[in-house]
Amino acid sequence: MNESYEISQAVEASADGRGLEPWRGKALTLGGEIDKLASNIALARDAAGVHFRSDSVEGLKLGEAVAIGLLADYSRTYSERFDGFVLTRFDGGRVRVSSNSVDEM
User: Fold this and answer.
1) pLDDT value, residue 15
2) In terms of CB atoms within 10 Å, which of 3, 16, 22, 66 comes out highest?
């Protein structure tokens, strides 16, 4: 996974909301959009009264840890050579996931 991969041909709603136009903002990256999705889900649950903010923050941390662990476990099943990849955590730290291991950078 390349979290800095830029999403090409991104679109946004037109001013009247009836169509789509090319995205004119800052470049969208895969990592940025995944982080934004997780944060929006957590914030929506806070606003809906389903969770306290502290629950959402800890939920993001737990979800991140589980996802990184699953990626490391799945890497053992690859039949091709896997050199791993680097991810940025929510706290800004970076980790390398490769061949069933997770190494802090």
Assistant:
1) 94
2) 3
* HSE-CB of 9 using CA atoms within 13 angstroms: 0
Assigned token pair, 61: 């941390």
Enumerate the domain spans of the chain.
11-104
Of 53, 54, 64, nearest in space to 91 by CA: 64
Amino acid at residue number 20: L
Digit-coded pLDDT (tens) for 29-83: 988 898 888 888 888 888 888 888 888 888 888 988 998 888 888 888 888 877 8
Q: Cα–Cα distance between 3 and 98 in angstroms, integer?
A: 15
The torsion angles phi and psi of 23, rounded to 5 degrees, stand at -65, 130
**Tokens matching residue 51:** 């969770």
- Residue 83: name the closest of 101, 70, 65 by CA: 101
List the Cα angle 54/55/56 in 5-degree steps: 90
